[in-house]
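Notebook B, p. 112. Complex prediction, attempt 2.
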Amino acid sequence: MDKAVLKISHISKSFGKSDILKDINLKFYPGEIFGLIGASASGKTTLLRTIIGFLEPEKGKVFFRKEHLLSHENGSEKFKEVLKDPAGIKEIVGFAAQTPSFYEELTLKENLEYFGSLYNLKKESIASNLKTLLGLMNLNDSINLKASQLSGGMKRRLDMACALIHDPQVLILDEPTSDLDPILRKHVWELVRKINKKGTTIIIASHNLKEIEEICDRIAIIKDHRVLKVGTTEEIREEFSEAEEIHLESFPGNYEKIMELPSKYRKQIINTEQKATEFIIYTKKPEYILHELLHKIEKEKETIIQLKVKKPDLDEIFVSLSANK
Amino acid sequence: MAIKDILKKNFKILTRSKSSGLVIILGPLLVILLVGLAFNTSSTSKLNIGVYIPEKTELTGTFTDVLNESGFGVIEYGQQEECIIDLKQSAVHLCMVFPENFVIESNSSNEILFYVDKSRTNFVYTIINTVSSKVQLQSSELSYELTNAVINALNNARDINSENMIKVIKMKEDLSSSMEGIESVLGDLNDLDLTQESVGTILVLNYAKNIYDYAKDMEEVMEEVNCDSIGDNETKELCKDIQDEIDNSTLTKDYANFTGSLNTLEQNLNLIKTKLSLAEAAKKSSVSELETLKGKVNSMLLSIDLIKTETEKVNSEIESLKVKEAKKIVSPITTKIEPVSSQTAYINYLFPYFIILIIMFVSILLSSNIIVMEKNSRAFFRNFTTPTTNFKFFGSTFLTNFLLVMTQVIIILGIVYFLLEMNWIANWYIVLILIILTITLFTSIGMIIGYLCSSQETALMISLGTSSIFLLLSNLVMPLERMASFIQNAAHYNPYVMASELLKKGMLFSLHIKQIYFDLLILLAIAFTFFILAYLLSVISKKQYFTGFKALKHISNGKEKNKIFELSGKNIENIDDMIDEINKSSKKEFDDFVEDDFSEFSLWARDIYKNKRLCKMLTGVKDKEKIIRILEEFREIDGKKRKK
């Protein structure tokens, strides 16, 4: 039985002669946090906009299912096509774009009430949801402030509150932490977790892959306008980690000398890179290299400040994938 | 429900900005107040007339007085050139140059020269007409006076003629009578016989001698008779008496006396004869003179007849003149301007044009502005994430504009009804229909402009441009009749012209709806068409918003031979230009290039600048400063490489 709340089936979308999405297939399940990662122009935003019905794909369909039908035995039969029920998808999805979207001239409360009314909610429902959201977003003290008077972080929270005013099953966040400082980013992710804990499915598109890696249950990598891989962070890491990394930081840091290794070792090195005072060696056999490397460091009378071996994180995998175009 | 909330939100946003609130609510009221104050008069506009009078006369004084009394500002100049210079500098609207010796005389030149500034095309003819009409009026009055004098002279002549005619008739009668007298005298004279018959004095003398002789004989006889012998006593007595008588007779003496008298008589007769001869000569002369006189009298009679006939003819011609009043001769055809409506002040006539003008400007500007504001608003996107339909948003925006403009119009109509006493209530339903149609039409046009424009500046310019075109192609600025015929034909379908003309018919002439229904239907059709067009554009605009027009343009061009990357209208091909353009770009412009999937700057580096490394460096970077920094660094590195 298909439990997905949203289902993307063979979506293709192009603008002019440029293909933006090619045969995308994805499913989003209730209560999960789903991450969409991809380079600029990979089609993430287009995909999100297609999901909610803003854009019409040339091929394929997007389906959704309302909450009360999720446990239906013939679940797959009860999917509705987004383009055939554009109002339906908007009732179950909340969307927060890269740029906060609300009226700067209205107060926080007025914004929430206004957007609540656009979902045809009763006044009582709006008031109830508003109260919950203000608490959740920690915006109670700013209720009567004009949106233009809010700080960056508060604006982001207000935007998310606007997206959640109708208590949607799915919350789509497109680059939710762009332009935010690290502290605000942390707050946003905490908020996302809180929202998710309430049972809301969250779909996030972000460039901040480290954060995605930390928060998302599942991830889809989009490359060349296609979904390259869908899976958990570990699954992806396993699949795309071609090499492990030896991070070396030594003093005086004469890395050229250190790297004058015998050819049998050099053959095992895929790539090297110097980042500031740190030297990184990419290899499939770190233990083999490490042995000779330590020997060489000792020989060159270098003092080791830091030496570690790690698997590449999602960010690095992503960069690596992007570079291999 | 949603519509009510959208309306509420729109009003809040509009009124939250105090300046825009003032402009929206008070702007039109201020305009109508100014217009009302400016045009709420029936007097001539204050025009300054420059006057150059080389020689002042009573007549020039009359003209300047008339101009002054007519409300013109009359400025007298000492030099014609000064007046013309002031005309060029718009200090005066017209220069009037009077001729020297400006008097009403047959040999004087009375041409008044007008200098006008034809560059003021909309006004020059009004000035000429206004001043000319005043001058013409004065000229007509002078003509009237002159003609009146002529007419009076004619009437006097006719009266004198009539009086003289009686005298002539009398004279003719007298002459005729004289003629008769002459003829009678002539007849008498002719009848007078002054021929000298010869008187036979000798014969008388002979007879007298014979009688004397007989008497002598008788005396001698008697003396011989013996009376005594006569027996009869009586006869004897008688005989004796006779003899006594004879004895006592003075026959010889008498005879001598007789002959003496007869000689004297003869002498006297001769004298008479002489006198008669003289009389005969005088008679002949008199007859001749009388004949001459008769001829002259006859000639005089003929002349008098002729004078009479001619005088009668003159009188008859004077009588036969159909128009004898100087006023009618000067202006045989007069015009009387009778307004078809009872309104008096200019504002009353111009009000339909002004109210539509206000509706047009406010509707177009306001609706285009609201649409662009909404489009550029951060919340524009969120609205579409809700189940509220596009038509509801469109309808709500339309209603916001409609209600705002309608409120203003109602306030204005209230003001003009109570303060300017303009009675539009009489035909209120037509006024209402027209105002609703007009607001719908111009709001739709404004919304179309709003959907087509991406910035408020562009929308404002296009809105003002569109409104100005509508205004320019109307009667308010320049009469349509002065324009080219095809423009005239097109201008009849100008929504502003249609609406204002219909409103004028409804408000001023109180025409019934049946009389204007055809034009009303055309206006309705136009309004409906624009409304539908505006809605279609709202749908297209929404689609374009999600597809990203600029990005679409870039991508579709990206694969063509001539690749284009425009940030603020300039095609960028090198790093220097890119840095400049990014620096110059507004936040909105910049955000358009970093918001969506296409990562415009990295794509530019890849497709146009053809540098994969720069593309990689720019990938995912959305901060303006960072992008500029990367570009500057790259420029430096690239420069060094090239030097090497």
